[in-house]
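Late entry, written up from scratch paper. The run itself happened at the end of the previous shift, but nothing got recorded in the book at the time, so transcribing now.
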Amino acid sequence: MDRRKAEAAIEAILFATGDAVETEKIAAAMEQDVETTEKLLRHLCDRYREEDRGIELTEIDGAWQLCTKKDFYEYLIRISKQPRKLVLTDVVMETLSIIAYKQPITKLEIEKIRGVKSDHAVNRLVEFNLIKEMGRLDAPGRPILFGTTEEFLRHFGLRTLEDLPEMDTVQMEDFKAEAEEEVEAKVEI
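Output as recorded:
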């Protein structure tokens, strides 16, 4: 294994574990001797310092850990103070599903499919950065078109929208029939 690849492997190990890892354990994982591993770690440490990176490689009692440089702590404090609780209720998930499969889509179209107002669900999805404005529909009032974001793909472990599961057509027909029955029941009341 060449030096660049070995250093990349060390980075992967340290990043994935998140904690300090003993030199011996890193060497064993990479199937190489401790002395070679130590040299790679020291070279990687020097590289981070020379390149003035946001992270540094720190030695802690014979173990190594990737850490944030102290110069950047203020940014970590700012980001940690931002509320970011991602709770996807059934209503929000239902709205997100509609947007994912029908995008770009307007709020009115979402509400027509759901049969109820969707302002809160759409606002939550925008707040969580799972959907965004994709433009405006060329129609009276120029309603906003919504679509999913890269964060949506990351959050659900998708590479592209083509990776979305196929919809079961029989189940979709059942849902459609139920929705139509609900609409008719509301009209009769």
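The first helix runs from residue 3 to 17.
(Scratch paper discarded after transcription.)
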